[in-house]
Amino acid sequence: MNLRAIDLNLLVILDALLDEAHVSRAADRLHLTQPAVSNALQRCRVVFADELLERGRGSMRRTARAEALRAPLKTLLSDVMALVDPPHVPLASIRQTIKICMADYPAIFVIKPLLQVLAADAPGIDIVVQPWHGAAAAKEALVSGASDLALSVFPDADDDLQRKHLLDETYRVVMRRDHPAARGFTLDHWLAYPHILVSGRGDTNSPADKILAEKGLKRRIGLVVPNFGMVPDLLKSTDMIAMLPSHCVLDADSDLVAFPPPITVSGFPLHIAWHKRRQEDQALQYIVAQLSAILTEQ
């Protein structure tokens, strides 16, 4: 390969093209004309001796070579930025968007305080909350650059990612304050009423059900919902019961009451993860620090 045929601007355009797999969207993202980006794509095809983007049914798709280029290209551009950028920029001067992949838990209790801190200290940092589709998809998004941070359970260390432990979550059984089971809450009370289960995949059982089965017991799952945000209002207006992560239970909500589970149910760790190439990204590391502080104070 003739390195003189490559300039950094070409690689920046290629990065956008591989992210978007669409010439017009890449042009809009880079504030360039579509012909300029199309011309850059043709140059990249010559340089890499590959089509990179192929025509599909109504869209373009990345070739295997293009997929292999995505992560190392982002690492290269990140290293160049670290080389030429000033080592520190005042937070108030940063203009950057941080994309965070997470479910509505923990988003429901971290986004509001995060925005309050940003408004005071770093008003130019914007946040995009992306939907959670599992740890494997989150890792892929971090590697490809589709996401900047991911907040959830990452049980295994990974060579590509930096991971920080934020807290150890526990579960609470939640119901409306005047629920018939709330007085002298017991295992029998817990099993006597239908339960709400939160599952993004529509599962109808959970680890708690396995524990119950081992004891020869069973609970009735009366409703499965895809996110935690739906649960409080449903509990307030029905006799249903839910077992929720403790941080989903707002102490200020006087209409609900929470109890320890009547069986031993293991909690889970909450982590924040990012790609190692972003270790020196000032805005990203600031967000990591703020989320860590918010969760520590909960």
UniProtKB/TrEMBL annotation:
<comment type="similarity">
    <text>Belongs to the LysR transcriptional regulatory family.</text>
</comment>
<dbReference type="InterPro" id="IPR050389">
    <property type="entry name" value="LysR-type_TF"/>
</dbReference>
<keyword id="KW-0536">Nodulation</keyword>
<keyword id="KW-0238">DNA-binding</keyword>
<keyword id="KW-0804">Transcription</keyword>
<feature type="domain" description="HTH lysR-type">
    <location>
        <begin position="6"/>
        <end position="63"/>
    </location>
</feature>
<dbReference type="InterPro" id="IPR005119">
    <property type="entry name" value="LysR_subst-bd"/>
</dbReference>
<dbReference type="InterPro" id="IPR036388">
    <property type="entry name" value="WH-like_DNA-bd_sf"/>
</dbReference>
<keyword id="KW-0805">Transcription regulation</keyword>
<protein>
    <submittedName>
        <fullName>LysR substrate-binding domain-containing protein</fullName>
    </submittedName>
</protein>
<dbReference type="InterPro" id="IPR000847">
    <property type="entry name" value="LysR_HTH_N"/>
</dbReference>
<dbReference type="Pfam" id="PF03466">
    <property type="entry name" value="LysR_substrate"/>
</dbReference>
<dbReference type="GO" id="GO:0003677">
    <property type="term" value="F:DNA binding"/>
</dbReference>
<dbReference type="InterPro" id="IPR037402">
    <property type="entry name" value="YidZ_PBP2"/>
</dbReference>
<dbReference type="Pfam" id="PF00126">
    <property type="entry name" value="HTH_1"/>
</dbReference>
<dbReference type="InterPro" id="IPR036390">
    <property type="entry name" value="WH_DNA-bd_sf"/>
</dbReference>
